[in-house]
Amino acid sequence: MPTIEQRFKRVRSQISHAEIAANRPRGSVALLAVSKTKSAQVVADAYRLGQRHFGESYLQEALTKQQALAGYDITWHFIGPIQSNKTRAIAAHFDWVHSVDRLKIAKRLSEQRPEGRPPLNICLQVNISGESSKSGIMLAELPRLVDEVKALPNLCLRGVMAIPEPESEYQRQRQPYRQLYQAVSALGLDELDTFSFGMSGDLKAAIAEGSTLVRIGSALFGERTTAARH
Question: Is residue 228 part of a domain?
C-alpha cells in the first residue's frame, strides 16, 4: 500500500509530465486535493507535504475539518452541489466555490459573504456533456451567466468547472474540454483565468486542453470512506 507521500509524488509527477507533453510551462497547473470523506488528520498529513488547496463537497464535514485545522494556512474550495440553505456557511467559510450553476445561488453567496473578507472566488459549473444526472448550465447559457455573476459585488468570477461524461479514450477525453476552453476564450475576458478541469482518470487530456487546476481525490488519498454528508 503506497504512503500518502508516495501518492502525492506520483500525482505531481503526472501533472509535470502532462505539462511537458502539452508544451505548457512547468507549474502552470495547480493541484486541488479533493479531501471529502477524509479526516482532518489526513488533510494535515497532506499539508505537511506542501499541499495548500483542498476541495470539499459535504458542508458539515468540511466545517468540522476547518475548525480542527484552524491554525493551518489552507485555501478551501467548495466543489459540490449547492443548496440554497447552505449558501451562508459556504460564503463565510470558503475561499473558492467551483459549482455555481444559477444566478440565485450566486446572488446569495454575494449577499452573504461576510464584511471584511475578500471577494469569493467563483467558477461556473458547465454541464459540458449535457448529462441529466449532473449539475451545471448548458454551454449556450454561459455568456449570460458570466455577465450576471460579474456584476455581483462580493464575488470574483475566475473561470469554469466541468465534469464531462467519463471516457476511456484519450482523444474523446480531450474533446469536451477543448469545446469549453474555446467557448470561454471567445468571451475575451482576461480575468477568466481558471479552468477547473480534470480528475484522476483524464488528467493528461484536461491539461492538454488548458486546465489550470486538476481535482484529484482517490489517487492521493485512496478510496473514499463513508462520512457525514450534510
Answer: no
